[in-house]
Predict the 3D structure of the following.
Amino acid sequence: MIGNGILAFAIIFVVVIFVYMSFRLKRQLDAERYYNETYTISLTKGFVGDSLAIYINDSLIVEKQISEEPFTIEVARFEEQSALMIVDQNTDKLSTFDLSNKGGTVSLVKEEDGIKQLAQ
């Protein structure tokens, strides 16, 4: 009976060590991720005079009043999947766009019924 108890504790100890090592390895792999792709965001028409906040995922990229067109910014990809969010700070309207995993250029135009993405 004592032998069975010792064996049970040894098995539990080995399982705990393997679980700890797998969590530690996953954390190291996540920390080492780096992406070469970049996004070029271009506000081409209809944005002059608007106060905008531009986000990628939950990170604020730019918050300013647009004074000239085209307004272009370049951002390095930093997540596996990304979404572009533009908030018009005068009306609090939110526009969202999915971003490609390959990077690239996103051209946007503001029309009467909202912000539209131009076809690439």
The radius of gyration is 24 Å. The chain has one helix and eight strands. Helices lie at 2-31. Residues 11 and 17 are 10 Å apart (CA to CA).
